[in-house]
């Protein structure tokens, strides 16, 4: 089965913890701290693979994890960095945060490789915390925690031209006649389950054309395979309506175009406003029986709106050359920029803003020491460089805006008391 959608959980590597150790050598009984730094956690990277055209390999495996960084060692040994994990996807894959459906990355155009989740930074060993007054620091910085995220992968086909129309109007036959594509053709009301792509070569340059699977009424509301089909039209610059001008199945071609435009408008008005033309197919089946010619009806209805009508027969090839030149002219006048979805969700900012719990307690052995713990604090300490003035100011703002200072005051803290957080001691002043 064609797989153009998958929901997976990705997780970056945790940073390795800094190490606590002291130099121990013969004749050096009380050596200084020599704990090494932890290694960096691995990143989660998405990369375009030209050989893939579906998201099939993500249908059966749900979780993907980069390697954690190793803990630092004795003698200032740095922990090994964790290996990145590289997830290969076909070009045109849009990566979204699963709940909000905000775009994280669009793997198309020049974007061939993107880091979606960064691995945690390794923690500093106790060698970094020796001072004139604290010569034997017995603490090290924990590694920055891993990031985990559920993402939705959607493949949105990249083509210049999208063929739209109801089932059995001849889209697949047309595509097979004018391109190198070899779609499976059968007389079913859902003939095509996956978009077929083909390249049309002309004297002044070619273009990519996609047979978007047959639409039905209610597609914009998800009826049938509506949404799965409609998402493939989002990148196309020009739309070609193929209609059964001969009404071989009893459908009215004028009514068909109105219905499809209505579905496009309901799904995304911006798509419905793109340049269009009409390919009135199956003219080899039109017979002069004294009734109004359906081609004249189509032209009278749509050409005043600026939508040209081209009578064709995909079976005999009649009118195909004129239609191809008409499509090329429309493409030349349409905006040339490839449609790329802008990033709306920034994992580091969003995950960092999580409302994680914390606790504030007095040290039972020393009532002037207040211990603050919780994943929220540990996460922030992992992110922040407290050695810099800017980093320390940022951390103070975090304590205030996160409600931690308020909780300390409720617990009865006074000026000059000590706040202890994961090996860091701070003096409290208002």
Automatic annotation (TrEMBL):
Residues 350-430 form the OCT domain. Residues 159-332 form the OBG-type G domain. It is found in: Cytoplasm. Its cofactor is Mg(2+). InterPro entries: G_OBG, GTP-bd, GTP-bd_Obg/CgtA, GTP-bd_prot_GTP1/OBG_C_sf, GTP1-OBG_CS, GTP1_OBG_dom, GTP1_OBG_dom_sf, OBG_GTPase. Pfam families: DUF1967, GTP1_OBG, MMR_HSR1. Gene3D superfamilies: GTP-binding protein OBG, C-terminal domain (3.30.300.350), GTP1/OBG domain (2.70.210.12), P-loop containing nucleotide triphosphate hydrolases (3.40.50.300). This is GTPase Obg. It comes from Blautia intestinihominis. The gene is obgE.
